[in-house]
Design a protein that fits this description.
The chain is an alpha/beta fold. The protein has a single domain, classed as NAD(P)-binding Rossmann-like Domain (Rossmann fold, 3-Layer(aba) Sandwich), CATH 3.40.50.720. The chain contains 14 helices and 14 strands. The strands form 4 sheets. A 7-stranded parallel beta sheet has the order 3-2-1-4-5-8-12, sandwiched between helices. α1 crosses α9, α4 runs parallel beside α6 and α10 crosses α12. It is globular, with a radius of gyration of 20 Å. The model has no long low-confidence stretch (mean pLDDT about 95). The structure holds nicotinamide-adenine-dinucleotide.
Length: about 375
């Protein structure tokens, strides 16, 4: 029995389907409170690619042969709900993808900042304490946190730990806390609690530090329109690569802040879901392991050019403009990140590349140009 949280989300839904395909003899329990749908509606936007209501999704999955999936609606900040879930299903593996994952949303005001941290940290604590109190400390816990906890340091980012040398010897210390948003700091807090729970109760934990995920489909979601995952393009919930594609399709120039040369870690949706599923199969021992789930280092300029090229191929003239950088950031910061463990042990294949993935995304979005244009104010965050 595998328990997947956040099963209705952008990454969660494709992961749910991929788990079903990879483990046909297991029962997969997906949990979600459908909050992401409400948040996007609240800020005045919509998924560009239409998605089914959860019942329609589950029915379509069943019709397509994903017959070992079960969905339960519930709020994981409710400790009684979490304990009930764990008690009833006693999962062998828990894959925790649920979160409020938007930094801009967490910055709207004090309430959304508080909500983000209470939601994310509450869920994580309930799962950890539930595993402890219900005797499930030997089960494998897989969590997607974020590479955003690292900040943008002037050294090569390690996979989770820094080695500090003193006179008497050296110590490996967890490296989670240079986050620069209230959302990212909520995940740094989660990482601290994961570390503590492993220290106290020896729960085997795979902490997947997820980078920016982009793209519109996976092998499984493309089997039917009714299996599509959400595709957000608004200022709050759309990640930069997905927003650039939407911007190009609604004939709005792509704006690059400053020189746009600062590289950020990214990964396609297909590779992100595949590597989470591979983590379930991994020999876990009794460890707390960290993987940097990053496959590509991409600058806004690279991204803009890839979108422009894909647009030209589709007969769309995409304009790139540079504006003065409104953010406080090192514009030419060349991030370096160790991802060897991730590539060798979780992804286990060549990562998908930027250009073809952007081309695929633009092709998938093309039928929904009108929707994007209708919600242009959401796209621009006005
Ligand atoms: N998408 C990215 O670029 C990205 C980057 C870094 C990290 N991540 C991490 O990957 C994971 C998945 O992200 P995503 O983009 O699919 O986000 P998402 O918002 O689409 O999915 C998260 C799901 O969790 C659910 N959820 C939130 N709070 C809940 C609660 N209290 N109870 C039950 N369900 C709840 C939401 O309804 C949503 O469906 C998250 O942990 C996120 O922090 C994502």
């Amino acid at each position: 029995m595998i328990l997947l949280t956040g099963a209705d989300g952008y990454l969660g839904w494709p992961t749910f389907l991929k788990l079903s395909k990879t483990f046909p003899d297991e029962q997969i329990i997906g949990v979600d409170n459908l909050a992401r749908r409400r948040w996007v509606e609240q800020i005045g936007s919509v998924s560009a690619i239409p998605i089914e209501e959860i019942d329609g999704r589950m029915q379509a999955a069943n019709e397509q042969g994903f017959t070992n999936l079960h969905f339960i609606k519930g709020d994981l900040t409710d400790i009684d709900f979490v304990y009930q879930l764990l008690k009833q299903f006693k999962p062998t593996t828990i894959v925790h993808l649920a979160s409020q994952p938007s930094a801009p949303y967490s910055h709207i005001n004090g309430r959304t900042a508080a909500f983000t941290q209470e939601n994310n940290n509450g869920m994580m604590r309930n799962i950890l304490w539930g595993m402890h109190e219900l005797g499930l400390e030997d089960r494998h816990l897989i969590v997607t946190t974020t590479t955003g906890v690292y900040g943008a340091p002037e050294f090569k980012i390690p996979e989770g730990f820094l080695t500090v040398e003193g006179k008497k010897g050296k110590e490996k210390i967890p490296y989670p806390a240079m986050a620069t948003s209230w959302y990212h700091m909520s995940r740094a807090n989660d990482i601290n609690n994961l570390f503590l729970a492993h220290y106290m109760w020896k729960i085997p934990i795979t902490d997947i530090r997820t980078s920016i995920i982009f793209g519109s489909q996976t092998e499984e979601t493309k089997r039917s329109e009714k299996l599509a995952t959400r595709f957000d393009f608004d200022f709050y919930f759309g990640v930069v690569p997905n927003r650039f594609c939407a911007q190009a399709l609604s004939n709005y120039p792509i704006t690059i802040y400053g020189k746009g040369e600062q590289k950020k870690p990214m990964i396609t949706l297909e590779d992100a879901a595949t590597s989470v599923v591979n983590a379930v199969n991994m020999n876990k021992a009794k460890e707390y392991e960290v993987f940097n789930q990053a496959a590509l280092l991409v600058s806004p300029k690279d991204l803009g050019e890839a979108v422009q090229k894909a647009g030209r191929e589709a007969g769309i003239d995409v304009q790139l403009t540079h504006i003065k950088n409104p953010r406080v950031e090192k514009e030419d910061h060349q991030m370096e990140m160790d991802n060897r463990g991730f590539i060798e042990r979780l992804l286990k294949k060549e990562p998908q590349v930027l250009e073809s993935s952007i081309r695929q995304t633009m092709t998938d979005l093309l039928p929904y140009r009108d929707t994007i244009s209708r919600y242009q104010t959401a796209l621009l965050g006005q």
